[in-house]
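Design a sequence for this backbone.
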């Protein structure tokens, strides 16, 4: 039965507050409604989300709704919105058209605001979501703190270029804003766990102590079929939903295996949380073999109409610059409403980069010359060193200024980003000025 669309409203206040990440260990966080992560937003497909944000920080901010196919004016980048100054209020209002695991985060001064906690989950429920016994949302993060639990920025040349190169990866490991979380569940049950990588630069290779689990969804919602694995990579910005079964009496870790993304920092296996399974309970869960169908947007050999090259180049002052087609902070050509986009995105550097497209889902139709193992709707996809993908996506009538960038926040800030417009060819092209603040 189709439920009626409704308006779901939230009031957000961005502020600086103390947050306890472990007993007796408090940090000065920046976040929404004095929570880290911020409140979980939840709506059904087709609902209108209204979020009124009051900025009580000491600097301007905006919120980006990562993965939501919303109008350009609500995308929260400075290309479409004048940043919300301290003391001001802005109302975000948009329909959530797709079911899935999404998230929101600051899109201004990201290397500071996101690092300090300006993020939260946004879950959109659909009518065909599989039946499970329970659900959990896990937001992955890490913080780089000094011995006084303070955030610092490296000031010396070598540490500074290392952080620019690697991205800021910390050794304070957080799941939902807490260190060493203990999670209690019941035996005989199957839960849906939604993982969101909200860290600046950490490559999270999800591992449950060797236990099997089923990957059932990625960025843009359900896959066609569940995939049973023991590990799954979640790069910054990406989401993965899994279905996991529990056996009475077992204890296992939620950990990240070492993933070598070619950083100065040596990769290692690290534990984020512990799961304890209590007594058996009856189950009503059912994960079907076919979760949904995904129509292919284009064949593997579709002709490429744009090439995007991610690379690095030397910088006299910063060690390295991060580039799109050889330049920093690029203004890319517009695309036309209704014209299928087939982009070749290549990574000529010797490190990984998670490529993120705002506002539209894409399908990877080829990776290093081969068809991908399965179809999925994506908004963030990792490019390994010296690799190449072909993605297909369809610009619908949501005209305006959009963006793509590396989701390692320090690389984004160091130039690996571009804006482009979606334009309607039947109308004269006029670049829209950023919308102005709604005063209340
Ligand atoms: Cu989640 Cu422009 O980013
Ligand atoms: Cu990058």
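Sequence:
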């Amino acid at each position: 039965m189709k439920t009626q669309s409704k308006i779901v409203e939230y009031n957000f206040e961005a502020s600086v507050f103390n947050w306890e990440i472990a007993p007796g260990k408090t940090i000065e966080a920046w976040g929404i409604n004095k929570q880290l992560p911020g409140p979980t937003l939840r709506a059904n497909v087709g609902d209108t989300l209204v979020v009124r944000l009051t900025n009580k920080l000491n600097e301007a901010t905006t919120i980006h709704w990562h993965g939501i196919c919303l109008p350009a004016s609500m995308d929260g980048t400075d290309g479409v919105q004048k940043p919300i100054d301290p003391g001001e209020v802005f109302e975000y209002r948009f329909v959530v058209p797709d079911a899935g695991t999404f998230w929101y985060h600051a899109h201004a001064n990201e290397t500071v605001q996101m690092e300090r906690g300006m993020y939260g989950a946004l879950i959109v429920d659909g009518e065909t979501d599989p039946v499970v016994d329970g659900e959990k949302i896990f937001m992955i993060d890490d913080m780089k703190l000094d011995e006084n639990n303070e955030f610092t920025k490296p000031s010396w040349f070598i540490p500074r270029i290392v952080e620019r190169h690697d991205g800021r990866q910390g050794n304070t490991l957080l799941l939902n804003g807490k260190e060493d979380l203990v999670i209690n569940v019941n035996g005989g049950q199957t839960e849906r766990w939604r993982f969101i990588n909200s860290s600046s630069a950490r490559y999270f290779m999800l591992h449950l102590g060797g236990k099997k689990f089923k990957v059932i969804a990625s960025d843009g919602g359900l896959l066609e079929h569940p995939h049973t694995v023991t590990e799954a990579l979640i790069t910054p910005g990406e989401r993965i939903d899994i279905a996991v079964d529990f056996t009475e009496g077992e204890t296992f870790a939620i950990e990240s295996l070492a993933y070598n993304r070619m950083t100065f920092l040596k990769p290692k296996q690290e534990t984020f949380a512990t799961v304890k399974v209590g007594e058996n309970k009856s189950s009503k869960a059912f994960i079907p073999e076919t979760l949904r169908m995904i129509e292919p947007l284009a064949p593997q050999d579709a002709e490429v109409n744009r090439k995007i090259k991610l690379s690095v180049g030397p910088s006299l002052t910063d060690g390295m610059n991060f580039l799109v087609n050889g330049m920093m902070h690029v203004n890319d050509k517009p695309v036309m409403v209704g014209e299928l986009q087939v982009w070749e995105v290549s990574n000529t550097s010797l490190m990984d980069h998670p490529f993120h497209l705002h506002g539209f889902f894409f399908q990877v139709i080829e990776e290093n010359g081969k068809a991908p193992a399965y179809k999925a709707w994506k908004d963030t996809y990792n490019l390994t060193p010296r690799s190449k993908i072909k993605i297909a996506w369809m610009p619908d009538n949501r005209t305006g200024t959009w963006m793509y960038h590396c989701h390692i926040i320090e690389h984004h800030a160091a130039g690996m980003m571009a804006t482009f417009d979606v334009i309607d060819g039947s109308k004269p092209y006029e670049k829209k000025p950023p919308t102005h603040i709604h005063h209340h």
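The domain at 7-127 is CATH 2.60.40.420 (Immunoglobulin-like).
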